[in-house]
Specification:
With 88 residues, the protein is an all-alpha fold. The protein contains two helices and no strands. The N and C termini lie far apart (65 Å).
Length: 88
């Protein structure tokens, strides 16, 4: 297959918005999964079931570590605020 580097296709663009809050770990995991795992409509059922199980397992891993990152960021921010308060 020869790819034309000048065809101008960039794929799909999606906007994800929230109101008065950031994205949750679950929302971020779903956004990442949409980029990482694609399951075509014409995939045979046994392969589709395996792909869906893989996707769900990967989602659980992503949510866990995104929550860890969020807690870590809060810990860092708390420490920085406390350090700033001690200086003043």
């Amino acid at each position: 297959m020869i790819l034309d580097p000048f065809n101008g296709e960039v794929g799909h663009a999606y906007a994800h918005a929230t109101k008065n809050r950031g994205h949750s770990a679950e929302e971020l995991a779903d956004m990442a999964l949409n980029k990482i795992v694609f399951i075509g409509e014409d995939v045979p059922d046994p392969i589709k079931e395996q792909a869906l199980a893989y996707r769900e397992n990967l989602r659980n891993v992503l949510v866990f570590y995104m929550r860890q990152a969020m807690m870590s960021e809060r810990t860092t921010m708390r420490a920085e605020i406390m350090a700033e308060m001690k200086e003043n």
